[in-house]
Amino acid sequence: MGKLRAPSSSLLSCLLVLFLSSVSAVTDDPQDRQVYIVYMGSLPSRADYTPMSDHMSILQEITGESSTEGRLVRSYKRSFNGFAARLTASELERVAEMEGVVSVFPNKMLQLQTTASWDFMGLKQGTRTKRNPTVESDTIIGVIDSGITPESESFSGKGFGPPPTKWKGVCSGGENFRCNNKLIGARDYTSEGARDTEGHGTHTASTAAGNAVADTSFFGIGNGTVRGGVPASRIAAYKVCIPTGCSSEALLSAFDDAIADGVDLITISIGGKKASMFENDPIAIGAFHAMAKGILTVTAAGNSGPDDSTTSAVAPWMLTVAAGTTNRGFVTKVVLGNNKTLVGKSVNAFDMKGKMYSLVYGKSAASSSCDAETAELCKPECLKKSLVKGKILVCSSPSGLKVVGSLGAIAIIYKSPKPDVAFVHPLPASGLPEKEFESLVSYIESEDSPQAAVLKTESIFNRTSPLIGSFSSRGPNTIAVDILKPDITAPGVEILAAYSPDGEPSQYDNRHVKYSVLSGTSMACPHVAGVAAYIKTFYPKWSPSMIQSAIMTTAWPVNATGTGIASTEFAYGSGHVDPIASLNPGLVYELNKVDHIAFLCGMNYTSNVLKIISGETVTCSKEKQFSARNLNYPSMSARLSSSDNSFTVTFNRTVTNVGKPNSTYNSKVVPGHGSKLSVVVTPSVVTFKTVNEKQSFKVTVTGRDLDSELPSSANLIWSDGTHNVRSPIVVYTDAY
């Protein structure tokens, strides 16, 4: 899910039967061959099984060809079973019907979705934060992204010992690419080498686990020490993305290798605009097999907000991250000729030296080919260069960013559709909120004012509570409707981190930098990956679900602004990640592979399919169907029919004591949003004599007349006087 693009500028989710019907009329002309992923679940355990031979045999059978040359694209053979191949429509139908095939889905191009951020969260530098350096140095974070910049100081191997003995990977980054004792491995799935030519992968890797690098900035903006959450840990980079996107077949190969290479955690800031069925979602498939091997996958929620139902990473075995602000922001003030100041957003590294320049509104510079209304938007081909050159161009949309440089303008001011985010631009710029922009237009259209301005950039440190980025994708979950997503919020707005000198900090920008400022859930995701790795350095035997629970139940409550779902758990999940509190959660909600298989049974996956996926015999009971509401998840959510005037919902949960022995926890319910809920916890008090002891309880939620526009919520808190183990409870209607 990539970094959020400046305003100037998909997993296909369909059941296989629908997909097949849509292509059934296509001919079998070789020109019509497309790449499809054939997912075959877990690797068979029998000693004589050879995945590559099996994959070639299947291809020969369905194609009738003796050679698979030009057909087999990839073979998944290290951590799970399957292959990617070029198939016609009829071949696709034949392979989908074969025994042992779970699903077949098209190869898609998915999209890529810090000095102050770690301090903001309380994870201070050096001795001010508790560390376990020996275990941290043995922790390996796998970064599936656009590659990495091996020469970056953020990934220097100076001071590091040899790679951990558990490491089974390679350094296969291509020409002039060298790993070291920090960047211990690299693989490329793009045929372009593992070097990052965009900057995205370098940025995410350094945010999660980069070295501490002092005196870094973006041309003086945000100066300070850039570092990752676990700077002593190791990094393995898996390049699956190029400028046009990230292919599903490459992504699955990266998971296949990362799991077998011995990484401890995977961070992946990639996804589509909407969620897909799990069997057709390469990230959900890869993350499931990672979970089964004890590896947590942290994913980005997406950048399709603020619309509801846009979170793309929705499987419960993944930790899904929304993006919020920190206490620092970048603003670019527009000082007008009448001394009035308007406040906009941009990461503006250009010094106008206090000089005022004339303003020209797009509609006042219209060319003969466009009307004034279109020119006001500054659409390409709509403006006369002679009327714009040497002035500050004013546009009522970001369209002018595409043409402002070629027109010879000094700077640009535009009405921003995302006024809460500062973008990097290749010239002085400021994106104004609507009211500020209207004030500017009134100033320009007044006859008496000197119509001139100057732009000035400042860093501000006045935010007291994190806000959710307007771009951050929202729930509810469209696939598993009773699982709350996103799970957690982390800093993802205006994050300074390492960057590739081969990339451009913005579109139409010929500058090259080693550190840059980006925004997106892509930036939030590696923050949580860093926190997860931090927890694992103290509890190396904790399962993925224990780490996920610790992060979710210790989160800060979020006082979200906005209306509708933008102000609810559908925007921020359990709250904002708190790295220090997550080290001492008190209680955790545990889940394992068996629990997730039962969950999938409840979603009507068959026993045969689940046997293939899990590699084990599975029996899905029709008489006692598992309810997703009873999955032992750290949050609780239920979708109800909008026709139900009154309702009763129950959630069954079990907590494990990871705090102190002989402890007693009392339950407390705190109201949240929307309609009033009545919540009863049975028992209301749980007592633990020993560490790792488990206790179960039931939560019964009743209410009536749910708001169809807003989810209703409450928070269950288990407290022993020291720990406050908080779980959101969210009830909503199918009107969404």
Automatic annotation (TrEMBL):
Coiled coil feature spans: none
Domain Inhibitor I9: 35-113
All copies of domain Subtilisin-like protease fibronectin type-III, residue ranges: 630-731
Peptidase S8/S53 domain sequence ranges: 137-575
BP GO annotations: proteolysis
Keyword Glycoprotein: yes
Gene Ontology MF term list: serine-type endopeptidase activity
Catalytic machinery residues: 145 (charge relay system), 200 (charge relay system), 522 (charge relay system)
Keyword Glycoprotein: yes
InterPro entries: Peptidase_S8/S53_dom (IPR000209), Peptidase_S8/S53_dom_sf (IPR036852), Peptidase_S8_Ser-AS (IPR023828), Peptidase_S8_subtilisin-rel (IPR015500), Peptidases_S8_3 (IPR034197), S8pro/Inhibitor_I9 (IPR010259), S8pro/Inhibitor_I9_sf (IPR037045), SBT (IPR045051)
Signal sequence extent: 1-25
Keyword terms, alphabetized: Glycoprotein, Hydrolase, Protease, Serine protease, Signal
Family: Belongs to the peptidase S8 family.
Name of the featured protein: Subtilisin-like protease SBT4.13
Origin species: Raphanus sativus
